[in-house]
């Protein structure tokens, strides 16, 4: 068994697609109608057959409440692995991404946290 799709709640699918593809550099894999919304997934450009990230609309009240509460508490919705946190931090800062935590060494891991502009905090980590 393996993880094939994981989801993240987003306030606006179009805005999220733009941020995750153009700013972060993920590659759109699926974008198909699903009722009034769309099934939009992205993958890493380095692993296009790997785990897909689903941009899930937060239309359900429980989803909106969950998303808001973890954001307000400063809890990242998910974590992405990077080769060099400092380099990625600099690249994203140059694109106007707002960080809530600068690169910080915690044991054997270096972490940073940014706002995805779609209602989530995202953590990047280098092992």
Automatic annotation (TrEMBL):
Lineage top rank: taxon: Bacteria
Protein's recorded name: Glyoxalase
InterPro entries recorded: Glyas_Bleomycin-R_OHBP_Dase, Glyas_Fos-R_dOase_dom, VOC_core
PROSITE patterns (alphabetical): VOC (PS51819)
Entries under SUPFAM superfamilies matching the protein: Glyoxalase/Bleomycin resistance protein/Dihydroxybiphenyl dioxygenase
Organism expressing this protein natively: Priestia filamentosa
